Amino acid sequence: MSTEITIANVTRSFNGHTVLDDVNLTVHEGELLALLGPSGSGKTTLLRLIAGLDQPDSGSIAIGGVEATQAHPAARGVGFVFQHYALFRHMNVFENIAFPLRIRKTPKSEVSVKVAELLKLIQLETLAGRYPAQLSGGQRQRVALARALASAPRVLLLDEPFGALDAVVRRDLRRWLRQLHEEMHITTIFVTHDQEEAFDLADRIVIMNGGKICQQGSPIDIYQHPADVFVHEFLGESNHLTGYAAGGIVFADAGFPIAETATAADGPVEIYVRPHHVLLRPRSNGNGGWVISRIAATGAQARISVSNGNTTLEASMTVDALLASGLTDHAPVDVLFTGGTVFSSEIRQPLKLQALKPRLAV
Amino acid sequence: MAGKVALIVTALTFMALFLLLPLIIVFTQALSAGFEAYFSSIADPNVQSAIWMTLIIAAITVPANLIFGICASWCIGRFAFPGRNLLITLIDLPFSISPVIAGLLEVLLFGLNGLLGAWLSNHNIQIIFALPGMVLATIFVTFPFVAREVIPLVQEQGNEEEEAAVTLGASFWQIFWRVSLPKIRWGLLYGVLLCNARAMGEFGAVSVVSGKVFGETDTLSLAVESLYGSYEIQAAFAVASLLALLALVTLVAKAAVEFLLRDELSAVKRKRTA
Questions:
Q1: What is the 3-state secondary structure (H, E, C) of A128-178?
Q2: Which of A247, B43, B69, B171 is deepest in the core (most CB within 10 A)?
């Protein structure tokens, strides 16, 4: 049976505040999809609507081609993992996982076989008798997942699945979930505000803001071609410069040309350059007056701030590359941009750039 | 260190003076004329009737307030509705009103000259000076015990577990019996124990509505007073010792349940401090 989820024109508001505004989305069968956005962007509300824990004011939701907008959660075949796990505190691990089987009146022998299977899957065979309060966060999360899987869902929904865990546990669980998905191929949607998590885990990312979907696509596609200023800024740090386009060339207000553009109409622009697209070289022919103002090595990567007195840019390179280049504090440098995104200030949409040539920021 | 010792000594002295000493006096007085006299005063038909009355009242009051407490905590804890705060305040009313006044209110309502008195006597229904009145008075007085224990618990726990149960395919009643009720069972148990103790020991409200017909509308606590009033000191203390025993049984029952379920309980406590 298909498990494609179709969300059409879904709107939901609470107390006059619109949380989801005419959302359309198709989730493909067997896909691992991330709903990514800042808090208040409506991503959790969308997840709850799919689960049937809440109903949209208008619009429709279909699961596997069957209209499910008003269907009872139990009839949808979805498994939901809550941010704070929502384990039954008065039941031990075994009973928690057995719950969906018991309420379906599954024969006792079958219950113990199934639960044992799931306990093995989450690698918690030895803790079957523990109560939720006696488990670590990561263990609770896995129990919650096993419990959701016990009801044999067609669709798995995870609300901020790793939100309450520390960094190392989070990374391990992420890998484990990815592996699990590759084995089981259950259509999975997870909500997160952590872009690294979304990029690491998802086949496809849907970015939400203010109750709308801003962009959807593969991680690489979204990162390389952000649809608007919000997406670009949300996906990570960048240098923001204002400038203008004139005669097919984009200039920064500081006066230096950035890129050539084929289609841009003349006018003011916003220029975003990620730190790894800022290339530094010992000064040879440039006269931009750039000087290194600070070097901070954070593990394998180094962050370098350069300043020309008016503007400060953040650059990043590997520590190895930094050492090889011989650049040090206060060294005069030339700055080149090897990539970047230019948005028209008026429509806040990206300009089509002709193959962005490295240009000296002189 | 000295301060700690002083605090412990003060607390223990207080306990001994106000709890242990009266308890000892009750039992020594009750047994002052020997075991035979003790048992014969308990075997007295009037006292036997008082025991039955007390048990019947508790057997009606406690389940009634249990059901009310579950319903009240369910709607107050889960839903926002107009009148919610008023309901919370009203639940506390019996705490702030003297039980005697509660009894008087009932007389004014159901008594012969009361608001509903004429209608009730026309239909041959007797409430005042009979069991129904005493039950009503006791329910009123013990009204807040279960609800007050459970409402904060429900509010603190939220309803994520119920939502999880819904997504796992559970029906309303499955959720109620397997998730919601077990979640609050500790609060319920404490509430029921307190409610029961109060229902059996209630004096003021019941004394107003009972009419104190010895051997008919007497409860244990009323019997203690009437026996004491008629200078049957030993008998009064014998009956009082029954009430004291009841209190001890309640304590032991509570401790036993806690002991039997210590693993789960400690898990719950740890979660609270975490």
A1: CCCCHHHCCHHHHHHHHHHHHHHCCCCEEEEECCCCCCCHHHHHHHHHHHH
A2: B69
Contact across the interface for B167 and A104, Cβ inside 8 Å: no
Instruction: Check residue A239 and give left, alpha or beta (phi > 0: left; psi -120 to 50: alpha).
Output: beta
Q: What is the pLDDT of residues A142-178, one digit of tens each?
A: 999 999 999 999 999 999 988 878 888 888 889 888 9
Of the partner residues B165, B185, B264, the one whose CB lies closest to the CB of residue A131: B264
b/e for B205-238, b at 16 or more Cβ within 10 A?
bbbbbbebeeeebbbbbbbbbbbeeeeeebbbbb
Give the C-alpha separation, A316 to A330, whole Å: 16
Task: Output the pLDDT for position A166.
Answer: 83
Taking an 8 Å cut-off on Cβ atoms, the answer to whether A103 and B174 are in contact is yes
Measure the N-to-C terminal CA separation of chain A; round to a whole number of Å: 60
Chain B touched by A78 (CB under 8 Å): yes
Of A10, A1, A6, A32, residue with least CA distance to A156: A32
Contacts with A131 from chain B: Cβ below 8 Å: 263-264, 267
Q: What is the pLDDT of residue B261?
A: 67
pTM of the model: 0.80
Q: In the beta sheet, which residues pair with residue A81?
A: A158
| pLDDT score, position B179 | 93
Tell me the C-alpha distance between B192 and A320, whole Å.
71
Instruction: Quote ipTM for the complex.
Output: 0.81
B267 touches chain A (CB under 8 A): yes
Dist. CA A214–CA B230, nearest whole Å: 87
Does any CB of chain B come closer than 8 Å to the CB of residue A161?
no
Residues of chain B in contact with residue A84, where contact means CB-CB under 8 angstroms, are 160
Which pair of structure tokens corresponds to residue A277? Answer: 């697209």
CA closest to B179 among chain A residues: A88
pLDDT at A356 over 60: no
Residues of B in contact with A132 (CB under 8 A): 267, 271
- Whether B183 contacts chain A with CB within 8 A: yes
Distances (CA, A) of A232 to A213, A227, A357, B66: 14, 8, 20, 58
Residue A360, pLDDT > 50, answer no
pLDDT for the residue B272: 46
Q: How confident is the model at residue A273 (pLDDT cuts 50, 70, 90)?
A: confident
A133/B274 Cβ within 8 A: yes
pLDDT at A129 over 80: yes
Q: Which residue has the tokens 């998905």?
A: A181
* pLDDT (tens digit per residue) in B159-171: 899 999 999 999 9
Residue A362 has pLDDT above 50, yes or no: no
Min distance B182 CA to chain A CA atoms (Å): 7
Put simply, the answer to whether B171 touches A84 (Cβ < 8 Å) is no
The reply to whether residue A100 touches residue B169, judged by beta carbons under 8 angstroms, is yes
Q: Is B128 in the A-facing interface, judged by CB distances under 8 Å?
A: no
Contact B270 A84 (CB under 8 A): no
Distance, CA of A104 to CA of A154 (rounded, Å)? 17
